[in-house]
Amino acid sequence: MNITARRRDNVLVLQPTGRFDAHSIDDFRALLASNRRQERDEVAVDLNEVEFVDESVLAALAEARSDLRGSDGDLVLASPSQSVRIILELTGRFDDFVVVPHHEMAGGTMSGLWSVA
């Protein structure tokens, strides 16, 4: 698993590839921490190239979203692959996140702007 980080305007885009599982959580958290700003940080996790996520990752994403919202930021999931979408639905976690079709749709006032796709 590899995770890249880049900024697009005011949005931090994190893009993992491959299997995103318990073994990747520390790398995800470290990359998020080293690239985030203090307040109003908006993060899009682009899941287009992820073939698998497990419950520990979904919990870590929810925790990150909660932390970001605590500082007037937010986290959205962008373009989940078909297998990730199925896992989100089967685990009942799909409605826990705002999902946008593409990371470029994230930004501005992310929370409340996009409904679950």
Describe this structure in words.
The protein has 117 residues and is of the alpha/beta class. It has one domain: Transcription Regulator spoIIAA. 30% of the residues lie in helices and 28% in strands. It contains three helices and six strands, in the order E-E-H-E-E-H-E-H-E. Strands 1, 2, 3, 4, 5 and 6 form a six-stranded mixed β-sheet that branches.
Question: How would you briefly describe this protein structure?
Answer:
The protein starts with a strand and ends in a 17-residue tail after the last strand. It is of the alpha/beta class. It is built from three helices and six strands, in the order ββαββαβαβ.
Radius of gyration: 13 Å
For the record, what CATH class applies? Alpha Beta
Tell me the helix content.
25-40%
Largest sheet data: 6 strands, mixed
Contiguous low-pLDDT stretches (5 residues minimum) are: 109-117
**What's the overall geometry?**
globular
User: Helices and strands: which structural class?
Assistant: alpha/beta
SSE order in H/E notation? EEHEEHEHE
Overall residue-averaged pLDDT value: 87
First and last CA, distance: 26 Å
Strand content: 25-35%
Based on the structure given, which CATH architecture is correct? 2-Layer Sandwich
Tell me the CATH superfamily.
STAS domain
Number of distinct beta strands:
6
Task: Walk me through the topology.
Layout: E1 2-8, E2 11-20, H1 25-35, E3 42-46, E4 50-53, H2 55-69, E5 74-78, H3 82-90, E6 99-100
Parallel strand pairs: 2-3, 2-4, 3-5, 5-6
Antiparallel strand pairs: 1-2
